Amino acid sequence: MDTVLEILKYTLPALIVFFTVYVVLxxxxxxxxxxxxxxxxxxxxxxxxxxxxxxxxxxxLFLERISLESLIMRVNRPGMTVQQLHxxxxxxxxxxxxxxxxxxxxxxxxxxEVVKNARANMLKIINTxxxxxxxxxxxxxxxxxxxxxxxxxxxQPTQAAIEYLKGEVNRVF
Length: 173
Prior knowledge:
Elements: H1 2-65, H2 68-75, H3 82-100, H4 109-130, H5 139-152, H6 157-172
């Protein structure tokens, strides 16, 4: 029995020290792992934040470029017919949209829906107004009607989408 007590006298403190060291090391390694994870997350945010901001900027530019006044000023040329102007406007919107399609990766799903809806509403306005004219009519009359429609609107779909994107950028960043 004395030998058992003598063995316990040495092994028990050694076991206590071993478990204490084990717990301390385990916590230390866990803390270091959490620090590394945090560093990786912060580094990713540091790299992705400018890309996300750039996506919002590009989409605002897209919306500005497909607004009625910008679109008409950019594609309307003297001597165009209603049909030519209509086709040019649709082609310009399609090209702008396809050029910025990849930006949806960097913005929220609701923001992308707002952008898509603004585009769809612009196409609807352009197509609805086109139906009121004959294809061979002068484009000037079509342009005037589109601009009058713009004046009658409380807010252009593209402007509403731009405001939404700006609000989201302010909330996120």
